Here is the input.
Amino acid sequence: MTNFDELIASANTRLTNQNLKIKIAKRGSTLYLRGYLPLKTGEPGLTRQNISLGLTASLVGLQLAEAEAIKIAASVNAGVFSWEPYTKKKEEPKTKLAKDWIKEFEKDYFDKRARNGKSELTWKKDYISIFRKLDQNKPLTDKTIIKAILSTEPDTRMRQRCCMVLKILSKFAGIEIDINQYSGNYSFKKVKPRNIPSDKLISSTIKDIKNEEWQWAIALLATYGLRNHEIFLIDFDSLAEGNYILKINAGKTNFRRVCPIYPEWVKEFDLYNLKVPDINLNRSNDKLGNSVSQVFRRWQLPFRAYDLRHAWAIRSILFGLDVSLAAQMMGHSLKIHTDTYQHWINEKHYQRAFEILINRPDRPLPP
Here is the structure.
């Protein structure tokens, strides 16, 4: 919570202590009030609504907002509240163009987190790619938001992402709209399973690679299930010292540790002897990852770089690694991990897991 958020919370506490059912909230760089107010139609009853004040999120603005909240609550209690002074102020934010709301949202987004390569990449891939579907030079309204959503294919991951991002933007802009109804039924289980390469094929392919640097890099991907770009973000000193547990300093997720599966591959492919490919490292993670993918395509390897990551995930299940620990090692949430990888286990994986289980020397025996 920022210092200004704490000031808002203190002001709301004061309002609560006076038994006033009006609260102050912040949307981007402006303040508004929210509470139980008379219906705009004039019918009897109260409903939870917003009042736009046109005040900036500043100390002076907060003082004025608190005074206005007290005034409005008193008028509601006395039965003399009128929407007329506030109607125009409420409509003003909705007349702003989509590009203006996006610019304001961007400022708020980076006010809440460090602006670095990682956050910039997330902003570009997860937000801007969706915001571009809006008509930038038209006002941001419920209709323009729905139009952007409907431009995507139903029941797809893109539709789901579009709904999620535009729901966040609409809430930020104070636009009341039921976006959930357009989200659809996409799930990982509807994705066609990949043809995960066997461990035998992975091992033999790596051994056939003539370039020592890329042989080392691809063996590292296979042994630790890394994302493409994470080859260049590991703790090299720790690995060179002979530590089996690989430390990843940064990447799509924060610092984490990963176990080798199989640990024999660490010695077989001489991973302690660092042979990092000589490429330009002063680039974003996605460009580093693309460089790795290009090597796989150029050499026409029988699998893709990410297939090695998926193979590690399947292998971790067969080894009996706790699923929550495997998710942490891959930098996933537990839900994403189980939805993605347990969906791809086929008949032979079940058979192998069963054989490992019944051949355990310490397994329980029948009476």
Q: What stands out?
A: The CA atoms of residues 23 and 34 lie 5 Å apart. The beta strands are 22-27, 30-38, 46-56, 246-248, 256-258.
